[in-house]
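<discrete_fold_record>
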Amino acid sequence: MLVTSFSSRRAAAALRKSTHFQNARYLGCTPRKAKRKDSQNGRTTHFGFETIAESAKQDRVGSVFSSVASSYDTMNDLMSLGVHRLWKDRFVSSLSPGSTSSGEGWNILDIAGGTGDIAFRMLDYATKVKGDHKTTVTVADINADMLAEGQKRGSATPYMSTDRLKFIEANAEELSMIKSDSIDLYIVAFGIRNFTDKQRALKEAFRVLKPGGAFACLEFSKVNNSLFNAIYKRWSFSAIPIIGELVAADRNSYQYLVESIERFPSQEEFKAMIEKAGFAVSGEGYEILTGGIAAIHRGIKPLQRPKYSSLGRIV
């Protein structure tokens, strides 16, 4: 992506000094052979198709999203032909955020919410559809540049000057600033695939949610139709990195993003991870979008806390 301007960098620096939060997101590129690097402690993870030290991933991902922050949504439009907006609208409407009663609104945590596009949709839905003027959204992201972009966009909404919207810088794998059993709805859209330890992030999601609260994730997934999958892979690995180079002068970031999509677990594998974290999953547990290019996953924190065996597994 285009290198962020001096002013946006100053905004990001100021944001780091404020009380605001974390993570990342979206599309991407030409397959590369996986490269191995020795880690300091022997623990490794993937960065696209490359294997790196686990301790290095956060900084590597951070560099990608600092690079793409200023033109993030424009590139998403070009790369998905605008379909990502339909996915996000479906994600929000399927969750139906907000309360129709005169009581308290929902307390929503938008992890990897960076630019605020999901948060704004959530608040619009609660306000305009439910008539709820009390629901709040906290946008949490690990990347200060993405948060700075979100705050800039938020200033054009009616929510930024109220207590219904705030931005905080935080790591989804360690949300110590969020109280346990305090969140009604935890959402993450096109972000969790970039986390270093996805299972740890899911456990944190479980911890901060109220009993009966919902976890919802919109993420790229696996296409099951072989012909459609071949066309999709050709577009992803051939066209997207070129678009990134031509429009954003940043081929490498979009190469990584496409590879990260390829490395993300299948629908069933990710469902199993959600259940392992303690969530109850009803029915199939996910909704397929556009033939499997993306999927919406949901889980509910049970009203009763799960019991664990001596091995740490839910029984």
